[in-house]
Amino acid sequence: MNLAAGVTAGLLLGTGLCLILHLLAHRRPSLVDRVAPYVRERPRTSRLLTERAAHTPFPTVERLLVPVARDAAGVLERLGSTSASVRRRLQLLGSPMSVEQFRIEQLMWAVLGLAIGLVLTVVLGSVRSLALVPAIALVLLFGAAGALARDWRLGEQARSRQSRMATELPDVAELLSLAVAAGEGPIGALERVSRTARGELTADVRAALADARSGIPLSEALERMAARTDEPSVARFAEGVSTALERGTPLADVLRAQAQDARDAGRRALLESGGRKEVTMMIPIVFLVLPTTIVFALFPGLAVLELGL
Question: What whole-number distance in Å separates Cα of residue 241 and Cα of residue 222?
Fold first, then answer.
């Protein structure tokens, strides 16, 4: 336990020294910070009274970590998670979270990883001797793994949402074509589908309708919808409807063609996925089942030869 206590004390001392050096480096305000209160419009109320939406289960901790997250953003970007990439994935996810709030979550995951690494280091130090440098490296490795895990989860969530949107596209396109064929206008058909259907693509349709109600032309709102996705079939659907509205093409025929194209694309994706799964299934067969079969086939002969010798 002496080694574990020494590791903990060393980590706490190093963290305190880093915080002191950080405060000393950022103690003197810059010229922009000194002039800004006199040229910027001051709020009528205190900033402490302004409400801010929380995106984590710990809103107080989130507000306290905002300055730290701004300073840690540079370090997190060096790990491969740039602000542009995070902003794009948040847009693909349809999340109202900002990059700064995501950095706070990423920092909290890193702190959780540091805590897990510290507990693991203490346990290993109590079981067997562990040097100080490997212990510190293990703790830092767990902290970096926590930050990278949050970034990876964001990418997985964005890809999963885009996949669900592609799956929902044929049904949404068919419902729109039926509504247009029944006499509904483009906006009326989109509103009817947004009221009756549920899903990720319907949420993007509602966002496009909200843009159209705010004064943006419907074609431009659909183009923005196409820019908010990385799924080619969904982007083609939105751009095709926008082009049909601008050129006066019969919308029902365009929607039916879009639905058929989406079903064909889904069928091709399913066949490609099946082909990849067949290759993956060969791994246990070649490396597990086949060697076991060979062992069972050769073992009786080898046993007979050994008895004969």
Answer: 8
